[in-house]
Design brief:
With 452 residues, the protein is an alpha/beta fold. The protein is 31% helix and 25% strand. Strands 1, 2, 3, 4, 5, 14, 15, 16 and 17 form a nine-stranded mixed sheet that branches. An eight-stranded parallel sheet has the order 6-7-8-9-10-11-12-13. Helix 1 (73-83) links the parallel strand 6 and strand 7 (86-93). Helix 3 (126-139) packs parallel to helix 5 and helix 8 (217-234) packs parallel to helix 9 (246-255).
Length: 452
């Protein structure tokens, strides 16, 4: 049999299972055959993968496309993602009227994105909750996010006046009625934050550590308990997104038990590689904050054991000019789409000895399973031919100028990571070749419609 594409003689990483040497045959955008090392295969295109990992393409579960240059973000950020081995992403879509706005936003993405994409809905009003069942069916969006940090005065400053515990619980009730429904929650007790913030500002503090001290980890952990408890009572799976605190993970450990709805946990690469003591200043401002090294180590242990199931970037493609002039006025969030695999391979595999198949599962199979993405996240016949080919020992030094992102800086600038992405393949099409964007990276990304 002649294949459209053959990935020859690589170390195939089966997420959550293991690694074995072999080749992969692709036809019509799907995996057609997995061949032993001794088997020969002919292909119209053959990529020699000897000494390299063949991983499923990364699916980033946590991005904010449109927060930089709304007209062009889908183009610039999807190509940035491809350079990092990312073949799919899920982005948060927030709007007063989700019914009228989602269709045009999807169409904009279909016209510009080089990779496959889906959406989460941001829930900020009772209207959103009431419309969720119909919206899920219409747009194939079965995951939502509730922003507990937008309670009270903090939310009012952004135009959100209905975020409270009642909104959270009603969203959980609605999520429980949607097949495959998952309610993600940003956990920070914003009502207590001013108690810590005002003395810090009065003392003239303007360092990155002050951002952690104004919203310490236990304020996240308290919200995690509330969300998990409400989820149990509402009969709805919950997802603690961008977990930053080891204490939060300990709360989840205590609450998990057979017979109750799942408590899923996601963290992000910056909580696994940067700390409040990193020399970043205001560009390191993010919500929840960067934490001490002990939290980084505690979260890595959760990745090692599988207690943390998914990992994303929380990518926000704004300009450096928005990150100042001080920690209090800087915008929150920063870019990171292209650094997922390098961070996980360097910090997780090389430094901590975590099996690559465990790390691969957290950014592919587990994401596809949690968010009901059929045909994604696995290396098996019939699945989409989405791959990241990685040289595990080759190093890459991060330079923001090397990416087409709207953002013009990186919190990882100058950092050196082993785990260089050499090729990215989306549904059999070559997006990146030898670390450079290739000819097939036009606007051919598909919308990931999930059936509720």
């Amino acid at each position: 049999m002649t294949f459209d594409l053959v990935l020859k003689g690589g170390e195939i990483v089966f997420p959550g299972e293991g690694v074995r040497t072999g080749s992969i045959g692709v036809r019509e955008g799907r995996i057609c055959a997995i061949l032993d090392a001794a088997e020969k295969a002919q292909g119209r295109r053959v990529i020699d993968c000897k000494g390299r990992w063949i991983l499923p393409g990364v699916i980033d579960p946590h991005t904010h496309i449109g927060f930089g240059d709304k007209e062009n973000d889908w183009a610039s950020e999807s190509r940035t993602a491809a350079l990092g081995g990312v073949t799919g992403l899920l982005s948060f879509w927030r709007h007063d009227d989700l019914g009228s706005s989602t269709g045009p936003w999807r169409s904009a993405a279909e016209a510009r994105s080089a990779i496959d994409f889906g959406l989460h809905f941001g829930v900020t009003s009772r209207r959103h909750v009431a419309e969720l069942p119909a919206l899920a069916k219409r747009f194939g969006v079965t995951s939502v996010k509730v922003y507990l940090m937008y309670k009270g005065a903090t939310g009012a400053a952004k135009g959100f006046t209905e975020v409270d515990d009642a909104l959270l619980y009603s969203a959980l009730q609605a999520g429980a009625r949607i097949k495959g429904g998952v309610v993600g929650v940003h956990c920070e007790n914003t009502e207590v934050i001013p108690l810590f913030r005002e003395p810090l500002k009065a003392a003239g503090r303007d360092d990155l550590a002050a951002w952690d001290e104004q919203s310490p980890g236990f304020l996240e952990a308290e919200n995690v308990f509330r969300v998990a408890f409400f989820g149990e009572k509402a009969g709805c799976p919950v997802n603690i997104v961008h977990m930053s605190s080891a204490e939060s993970l300990e709360i989840v450990r205590r609450l998990r038990r057979p017979g109750r709805p799942p408590i899923h946990v996601e963290t992000c690469i910056h909580y696994l590689s940067l700390t409040r003591d990193s020399p970043l200043g205001p560009i390191g401002k993010v919500n929840p904050p960067l934490r001490p090294q002990a939290d980084v180590d505690g979260l890595w242990e959760g990745v090692r054991t599988g207690e943390i199931a998914t990992i994303g970037s929380d990518h926000v493609p704004r300009k450096r000019a928005t990150k100042g002039p001080d920690i209090w006025s800087a915008s929150a969030g920063f870019p990171g789409l292209a650094q997922i695999l390098p961070v996980l391979i360097e910090e997780g595999h090389h430094k901590r000895g975590i099996a690559i198949e465990r790390l691969a599962a957290a950014v592919s199979r587990n994401v596809a399973t949690l968010y009901s993405l059929p045909g994604k996240g696995m290396i098996a016949p019939g699945y989409d031919a989405d791959f990241a080919i990685v040289d595990p020992d080759a190093a890459v030094t991060v330079r923001a100028a090397d990416y087409p992102s709207h953002s013009d800086y990186s919190p990882y600038e100058g950092m050196r990571f082993r785990g260089r992405v050499t090729h990215t393949i989306r549904r059999g099409d070559l997006l990146v070749e030898d670390g450079v964007l290739a000819g097939a990276q036009g606007a051919a990304g598909r919308y990931l419609h999930r059936e509720p």
